[in-house]
Model the fold of this input.
Amino acid sequence: MKIFFLSAEVTPFAKVGGLGDVAGALPKALAELQLDVAIFMPRYDIIDLSHHPVERIPIPDDWHVGINYQDHRFGILKSRLPGTDVPVYFLENNDFFYRGGIYNGPGGAPFSDEPQRWIFFQKGFLEFCKLLEVRPHVIHCNDNQTALIPAYLRTTYAHDEVFRQTAAVITIHNIAYQGVYPSDTMQSAGFHTNLFYPESPFELDGAVNMLKAGIYFADLITTVSPTYAEEIVSGPEFGYGLENVLASRAGNLFGVLNGIDDTVWNPADDAHIPHPYDVDHIEGKLANKKGLIEYFGLPTEALHDPIVGVISRLVYQKGIDLTVEAIYRCVHLHDNVRFVVLGSGESRLEADLLSLARAHPDKVSLYLGYNNGLAHMIEAGADIFLMPSRFEPCGLNQMYSQRYGTIPVVRATGGLADTVREFNPEQNRGTGFRFTSLDPDDLLAALTRALHFYRDPAIWTILVRNAMRMDFSWRGPAIAYKYLYQKAQQKAAS
Ligand code: ADP
Done:
């Protein structure tokens, strides 16, 4: 079975969040199941290919993508996912992708031709398949940037020989991002404008909605945890307006929990942390905690006090306002609890965190920005990890945390509910602490339970070991996707 995996981000080439991690890891796990999988992504200027083997695929001069009666030429580079044989194809066009960023430029503002960039990416992929006569059995689309592919396969490309046996699967990594654009985007995309009318597959609230089209036309829809799959059909709070189209396709919607790349996130072999450790040698964790304390210039006595880590995009979704409130209350309630926060995002949330860090330099350390190495150091050096998301399709950091023996305190929503079990001291089962409401008192109660058990080293060690023994690898999820690919193919053929 030939699978093409399309994504706007792929680790280690270009990543903003969890999508990049998934796109860099799931194809590897699929290849281990003997599937013939390849990745397709844009060639951004921010991608450093100097350490990767690269070959250029010749493209004839007259081969191009048309958008709004303008022809755009493209190049194709081919490399490999490091450490694997999985091919990675990069779609090259400097006008669209040499912008200093993936979704936004360095200043953070979205690009004015955003829909055209993603239309170009998707049509470029389809034209590439035609040129090379690649006949994918399944195109696995991810999020709104690739959500028009299922629509193309059923409309403008419906009679192309190369796609005769192609099924489309779309994975929703976060339904809050839908690709919503003005109605003339239909023309840019090359769809007949009579496909756009109130409640048509392309329309929501008067605008073109790319994700809606993807959900409507895909053979199968998946999302990244079983709980999120239930939440997004339950109503507008989680479905963000797409709950009805999802409900209409409920029989074809599946929740498959993301895995983690346990070769990249492995405390026993992690180039970013100075002291490797594993479940039988957890002493190494304390040495990493010492390194983290030194890195942030926290007082040395912090070594024997609890450190709470936060690594996140600083946005509403992640409940960072609750985090701010929890830190504020904690530093006033407890003398010895410390926070290390890594993230960047909304300026108001950044400012709130900054003022807490300035007011309590011995208790709150903050790194505003993106720093992958530091993310690994925090996972290794912190004791507790806080993730109070409003909604969380899957979430990766709570899984990384468990693997690094850093006990998660989470709001029980989406993938957080599926991956963190409340610790039960009678049975010594469970790996973290959960709360359900958005009330800061509930968050604080869960954090207080964690701090309570931290005081008992024997129990804490059991908890840390429970967490580190969890298997969040991609093996199980990859088997589920293989099954769904077969199912999608049967559907497409019927
Ligand atoms: P989302 O995709 O919604 O941002 P996930 O938990 O699924 O959330 O994935 C977030 C990923 O991005 C994790 O790999 C996390 O470590 C990483 N990350 C987020 N913010 C930062 C940051 N400021 N520096 C380094 N890594 C970050």
About this structure: The CA atoms of residues 292 and 381 lie 6 Å apart. The chain is about 40% helix and 20% strand. Residues 17-18, 21, 311-313, 342-344, 370-372, 375, 394-397 surround adenosine-5'-diphosphate (CB under 6 Å). The mean pLDDT is 96.
